[in-house]
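Q: Protein A?
A:
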Amino acid sequence: MSFGFIGAGEIAAAIVEGLSEGAAAPPEIFLSPRGRSRELADRFPNVTLCESNQQVVDRTAAVVLAVRTTQGEEVLSELSFTPEHVLISALAGVPDTDLLRWAAPVEQVVRVIPLPQAARRQSLTVTYPDHPVTRELFEPVGGVLVPQSDAELAVFGAATTTFAAHLDYLATISEWMAAQGVDSRVATDYVRHIFAAVGAWSADSSLPFTELARGHATPGGNNERVLAELREQQVPEMVRTALDRILTRLRG
């Protein structure tokens, strides 16, 4: 099966790389003329750079929309689809009703939450509803997770918005170390090392995160003290409040 991508930013590029790099039988991929399309077409023989978004639509029945959310209506409204097309939307918070109206006469829409890890075939991609086309697209780059409802899809979408906050937390730690006199590169490498190890350890565990945190917080120890300080400052509650607001926005 072939796939078309309208929009070729970092997420779309990650999916294309995961599908193409070293694959024994990579799918045929058509890219719109924007973002990293030229680079990807030059790297992978299964990737074709199209002259326009409409040419992408004309070349394949499975079209991934990966533009900015604010551009969705404008981009789709300029294109001519058929009822046989499957529109795979990576636009956060845009409901099926809008997508179906903008891309009429399309009858099949699947919303997805792809991750940058797709480039390394390690992205567990949330897709809703379940569809054989999106399984064929995303299972090779890490697997598919299907929520039980549209409302649950929004919960996964909200949780995914915490990437930048998590990285900012790590940046705060490394910057604090540098302020204490540690070389900034050494501080960054050390923080990257310890949290990569924690991530790998948690990935191999079946315990809930609360249990993992308890296991690292020796009673009376410094880990427990920092955890208690952050809780006293209502940091977990601030995270919940931010997620609640994002969820409200995603659900419209």
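Q: Protein B?
A:
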Amino acid sequence: MSSQILLVEDEPRLAQFLNLELTSAGYGVTVCNDGMSGLMGVRQLDPNLVILDWMLPCLSGLELCRRLRQTGSKVPIILLTARNCIADRVAGLDSGADDYLVKPFRVEELLARVRTRLRSFQNPQVLRYSDLALNLESREVLQGTQRVELTVKEFDLLTYFLRNPKSVLSRSQIVKEVWHYEHQQNYNLIHVYISHLRKKLEQHNPRRLIHTVRGYGYILR
């Protein structure tokens, strides 16, 4: 599956050009033309990377970066701007941007930076969804900047959901993959662990991530 990029750019010609180049490079691209729609786009689409202009209507790129980081989003952000002085570069990076590219730029340089940021973000040892980051090596879970303490089985359960985001998982699948039982008709155990996991996750963010699919199983969305 190709990496998904959210492009937030209000200049139509540049947005069209970058959309074409990124699509030709094999990425899925969604374009927003102002800061507020960009903010909503990140929340709804959960992209792998965001490219945004500094000067945007409704909400500046700088403020968009700040709001995303304040909510715990770790999505890589490349900031595009005509501002070239050191103070502006520092302000852009301090706002939460991971990279800073001054206009005019060659598209080859942008594509190289996109590849670099995606490589660093898509560490196979770290599973991410929304504001969650689960490190398979250290067995640490972060929700935004807050550490979430999980039992061994809660960690395994969350890992299974994070490996299958936005997919409906049946109770029999969960029992088989997390508890390694081939035949299990009593699913109360799953319900208990899901309840514990939800409670711990919702201490830091009241938005529910694990939803019940009545009569079948659960979904992370």
